[in-house]
Amino acid sequence: MNQAVDRWLFRLGAPETEPIVLRQRRIYVLPTRAGYGFALALLVMLIASLNYNLSLGYALTFLLGGMAIASIIHAFRNLLGISLRAGRGEPAFAGENAIFHLRVDNPRHRRRPALRLSTRDGATLFDLAADESSEVSLTLPTHQRGVLPLGRTRIETTWPLGLIRAWSVFIPAIETIVYPAPEPTPPPLPARPAGNSSTGMRSTGGGDDDFTGLRSHQQSDSPRHLAWKAYARGGPLMTKQFAAVEGGEVELDWQATPDHLDDEARLSRLSAWLLAAEQSGARYALRLPMQNIPAAHGTTHLHRCLRALALFASPAEGARHAP
Predict the structure, then answer these.
(1) Same domain, yes or no: 303 and 225
(2) Are residues 161 and 205 in the same domain?
(3) What are phi and psi of 7, to 5 degrees?
(4) d(Cα 83, Cα 157) in Å, to the nearest integer?
(5) How many C-beta neighbours within 10 Å does residue 301 have?
């Protein structure tokens, strides 16, 4: 119901120009559920006072009614003049919560208590001291990769008595990027083709650096690499597989993923490989059907590669959207 009222009162579409200042015309007030109950109680008190001609009943009814009316003004003034600015959005993997930061300014010389910022999926309570600028964080659940805008955001208050709700809706110009969720149990990093090993390092499956999984036992395997715990539980004899880096460079190629995987599964595997390559300390490159990112290492390079996966469009999809 509240969302329907918001959309009717605040017919907003695109993100707004900053700063977003809450002036008189964009703040609305309505009773809360407690306010409607309080109004009903006052009506009953008034009828009883009229029937029994109770002077004290009149006094109490109008005193309480005056307090409720005064709370309308206080709730309205608690939002009036607040200024909002978009901050930053922190990247997240699909399935995690994305965090958005907003800057809220109080230009007046009085405190703003009991404020609430909310979206369709979450809310944050906060106070503003006099002449204070505060950063408020909001979280949104993520379900798929790509660009995620914060969207319609509501600021509201029920201060001081909880009988009246004053609120306003705005759309800040803030978004974040959602990376593909990494595959939970990816295979080891792909080995660099032997013909290219001289240009840099390659990832192999026979080193002793990082455990990457289990494979079927072979006669030539070292006894110290056997998975004795799995064998003791009644499973087949397996060999622990480790990844080592020889030289320093790994190439993560879209074409190296199995053909039976769909696009999202391939992106999920590449996402997991990127995290593994970054953790291994090797330089790594990313090759996609329509984009190549040269080998490098570090947080900036990792986020560049993950962003390319998040915004990836398959060649078939790109052809469908082409003019």
Answers:
(1) yes
(2) no
(3) -70, -30
(4) 15
(5) 20
pLDDT per position as a tens digit, 205-264: 444 455 556 666 666 566 666 676 666 666 677 776 655 444 468 899 998 888 898 999
Contact 276, 205 (CB under 8 A): no
Q: Residue 93: which domain range?
A: 2-178
From 178, 203, 224, give the residue that closes a domain: 178
The verdict on residue 323 lying in a domain is no
Residue 24 and residue 154 in one domain: yes
Three-state DSSP at 206 gives strand
Same domain for 172 and 301, yes or no, is: no
Question: Is residue 185 one of the residues assigned to a domain?
Answer: no
- Tally the domains of the chain: 2
What pTM value is reported for the model? 0.76
Rounded alpha-carbon distances, angstroms, from residue 218 to 209, 243, 315: 20, 18, 41
Rounded to whole angstroms, the Cα distance separating 294 from 301 reads 9
Cβ-based burial of 91 (10 A; exposed 0-12, middle 13-18, buried ≥19) = middle
Tell me the per-residue pLDDT of 41-98, one tens digit each, with 9 for 90 and over.
999 999 999 999 899 999 999 999 999 999 999 999 999 999 999 999 999 999 999 9
Q: What is the 3-state secondary structure (H, E, C) of 39-66?
A: HHHHHHHHHHHHHHCCHHHHHHHHHHHH
Q: Strand, coil or helix: what is 101?
A: strand
Q: Token digits for 316?
A: 């078939």
